[in-house]
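Morning!

This is the sequence you dropped in the shared folder:
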Amino acid sequence: MVVSIGSLTYETTIDDSLKYNITLDVPAENTNQPFVAVVTGSGADSWVQLAASYPSVMSLAEKAGGDGILTAEEYFGVNITALTTAQYAEMKNQLIPVDSDESRKNAFFAMHPIKSLEKSTSISRMLSDIDFKLPAPAKTTLEFLLDENLSETYNEAFRFYDNTLISTQIDLFKSDPLQSVVSSKKLSGTYFVESSNYNYLLTFNEDGTGNLQAAALGGVITWDELPAINADFTWIRKGTQVRITPILPLVQYVNYYIDHGGAYYSCNDYDQSNSQCRVIYEYFDIELIADIDAGRFAYFRPRIKVENENGYIYAETSPSELSRIISAKDLSPITESELVGQDWYTSDHRYVFDENSTVLKTNLSTKNTESFAWELNGARLVIAEETLWFSAKDIAGYSILSVENSRAMRKFLYKRTPVNMTESDWIGRWTAYPYDRLSYSQDVNIDKTWRDGFEAEGAGGWSIINNHTQSAISNGAWRMHRDVLAIHGDKYYMSVCQGKEAEIFVPYNCYLSVATRSASFDTVGFWGSWSYPAFNEKNSGQNWIPLGGSILQTIENTGNISTEYIRVASNKLLNRYDLTILEMTNAGKDEIELCEYKLFEDCTESEKRVYLRGIELKLTVSGEGDILMRHESYFLEGGYTTYERSVANMLMVPKGYPQELIIKPDAGGLLSSDAVSGCGGTLVGEIYRIPALVEPCEITVNF
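The structure's back. Tokens below.
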């Protein structure tokens, strides 16, 4: 084991019982610096490398007490585990400076709520299961985690490979006393419970009462409903188990209910035309898993009962939501000078604070501006009915926990800095960051067109409004404004507003986005799930049409879909049946390079294939109707379906293969024999048959 403090290193050996002793005789100037310990296996186990980030020696000395000896009972972080390794790697990958105990705590709070715990289970699996190898090209477990794309790939691949894998590993994690230490310290206070998808604000009073606020509970209520939750409760704790019971019935309403197994339950009791189900939250269980430097890991489980007008139809304990719990008292305070005189943005509002404790708050969609008094107390900022808790600082601003009208939500607060972009500074391929499975690309072209990566259908025009804002329109009907608030390194921090095109543009919604730009139009990711590009394999000419980004399917010469892939990283897809990874290893404006290889292995040159961009067909349409393209789909399970997708003002097809379009007038409309023309096609009924093409062309449709 090697311990690094500043420029100093200390070494010791871990014995066969996995215990170690080390004496740290540290110069005074280094005693307030956080430090790192890295453990490397020997011989055949040299691929095992674990690490941990520690607070300063001064901080640890306080925990150690008078004898100066620090044990696991005094500080659980003495144990170097898969979890501490994943946390250290995430801290390094975020590039947040860690030069004091305060900045170290900030780095922990800036982490994704649960990703480090999930990734630690990948390491645990590799250490315990002979069928799970260290994925190439990583040489050690720490190197695997420091390669953000590689660890993200296998974290998602393991989830799809076996959806019980992560939960099984966490059960093993909980049984390991070295990793799952849960202190018995009092629970009273204000806490944030954060999962991958939901946020809850919980207040525990010492008398056994409390309050819960949330924007949504579990996955029961659909996103577009988002009713605010504000419920008083009683609570009791026994060891690692906490139960929250609402004092008054906590009820929400849905038009139908789908349980977590996918079963559908109708809310129609056949007596009323607009029946709804009552979703009754009977209680919530919290299972404390482990203490960490920035809070605790826990499971959050709602117990619900569903009723329609005829009474009970279903009850279940919802699947556990893996969550992180943060205590409000652990958040670092900020000062008024950090806020005053700056221009701040969340996903939906702009804030300008002045020295007289007044803030101008502007709704980014409606442009309505109101003036409020504001009050800052430590990490807690109150603006009328809204409370912002500052949880972590980064280069662009702050990560915050917002509570407004009982809606508790994780947000970001970005600070506007001077930006001066010309038209040429916009041209290139923009890719959403971080580069995970949800990342997408957009092309901004020199000819004033834009599109979603390789997609043809989304083609539209763009212009600049000022030196930091671009306006783009898609299909003549949907407008998007991208306002660059700040540029830090290669990252562009933006406020994006979008909505229907109108003489007076009123956005439907706004959100914050981070992206990188490649002026050469290369890419680090597959296109978005709405994309329908077409390609030809460079050597054979074989046609290839991927349908979407979350499920990518290969069409053989017959035109039938044969293989199913699922996106697991920005540039990688998993074939769940063949257990292969399909990786985009290179991409330009007109061609891509793909490589398919076995899980846990690495791409070789012989496995790479180059695909050329297909042919774009422009559509000029007048009148009312729909234009569709049909795909006949065969799946590996033996099923069959016909898939029709609507095309708008442009589509892409493979070179050298005949195509068919379905031309459907609106109800009551008729097609004349000359209603469709172009590209050498022939109209037979509602089918427009296009011969194999080698050049772009245009089709005119008159409904």
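Headline: The chain has six domains: 2-175, 189-327, 336-415, 423-518, 535-609, 615-702.

More detail when I'm at my desk.
O.
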